[in-house]
Amino acid sequence: xxxxxxxxxxxxxxxxxxxxxxxxxxxxxxxxxxxxxxxxxxxxxxxxxxxxxxxxxxxxxxxxxxxxxxxxxxxxxxxxxxxxxxxxxxxxxxxxxxxxxxxxxxxxxxxxxxxxxxxxxxxxxxxxxxxxxxxxxxxxxxxxxxxxxxxxxxxxxxxxxxxxxxxxxxxxxxxxxxxxxxxxxxxxxxxxxxxxxxxxxxxxxxxxxxxxxxxxxxxxxxxxxxxxxxxxxxxxxxxxxxxxxxxxxxxxxxxxxxxxxxxxxxxxxxxxxxxxxxxxxxxxxxxxxxxxxxxxxxxxxxxxxxxxxxxxxxxxxxxxxxxxxxxxxxxxxxxxxxxxxxxxxxxxxxxxxxxxxxxxxxxxxxxxxxxxxxxxxxxxxxxxxxxxxxxxxxxxxxxxxxxxxxxxxxxxxxxxxxxxxxxxxxxxxxxxxxxxxxxxxxxxxxxxxxxxxxxxxxxxx
Length: 461
Hints:
Elements: E1 20-23, H1 31-46, E2 53-58, H2 64-77, E3 81-87, H3 90-99, E4 104-108, E5 117-124, H4 132-143, E6 160-162, H5 166-175, E7 187-191, H6 200-207, E8 211-215, H7 234-242, E9 247-251, E10 258-261, E11 267-268, H8 270-283, E12 291-295, H9 300-308, E13 312-316, H10 320-330, E14 334-336, E15 342-344, H11 353-367, H12 371-375, E16 383-389, H13 400-413, E17 418-423, E18 429-435, H14 439-457
Parallel strand pairs: 2-3, 2-4, 3-6, 7-8, 7-9, 12-13, 12-14
Antiparallel strand pairs: 1-5, 4-5, 9-10, 10-11, 14-15, 16-18, 17-18
Helix pairs in contact: 1-2, 1-4, 8-11, 13-14
């Protein structure tokens, strides 16, 4: 077996559906490759200009310092200047890139993944994630062996500065338009996932007047997403009930997602949050083009609830970049994924968990209705989602046994539900999702598909 340090710097596509991601200190998330990413981002986004500015932020993973240092070194060696934002949510980096007129913003995070992983998300000067063409241009630079032959020297090398008021700027941006006591009387529990929201979220919601109980805001470099956050809401739900709180909000590791629980501890799905906030906007005449965008992973109940509300619904492929692209092409102001990644183009350029929490709280406060009542208008069809670790990402429909099993499941549901089988864009996983009116039948159909895919492509463990 070839050791990791002997691997070529770039032997296959780096960018997945949400940036570059992998196990920290293993290809592609090695300091050597990440340094090259820094150089390439600087060259492509700076377009040869002098005084290129790039903002870098990170979440709380132990590997963050190593990778941020490598990125910054690569940018400086290409002549760019780095502005370190420190630990800050991913949407904070997107905001800062535009706020300080930077040429790009880079977030070092693996989102909701375990602490062993890390990743790189890149934003352009306007705070938007990069297009496929721009990502490919960056990859071409990295793959070109002549790329490092024209590096600047002497006074043309960049410098690193601390952006000391990064969190304050981002917090001011989030609170714009809301009075300091806006949430007075609201009993709120928040789960910071021991991640990027750990510092800012408690201060933010308290500053708006909420009575805040904070969970999982003591990061140690290894406990990010560990039994907490948007993927693990059990403790949050228990605490909401114990504290007799009005609502609970759980963020993921880089705080671009948010999942809520109501006053009874019941999970409010990302689709339900999307529906509640879109409905609130429509009722106040703020829903431009009367349109909501979501992905194929959204629950069938979302489309039905939106139709009953008289709101048009556009469905895209999986991924927040696909949602954003459709929103911009169709002039939609709100869109998102059931995972809790919600975009409000009237306020921001990317998904923002804290902003989503604020919008949900606004819906609750200004209507005077509990979030349980607002969210239950959308019925959630039973949905079973299972992941299979795979050794390769081959076309499963090319295997007759797999194709027949999927087809049989679709026929059994006969318009009462749906089946979606796809590969993860960031991990070696095949995701099988089955949705239908009956939980037992839905689970059984999902298990049948999982079993046959495991037979042909699955890995142990």
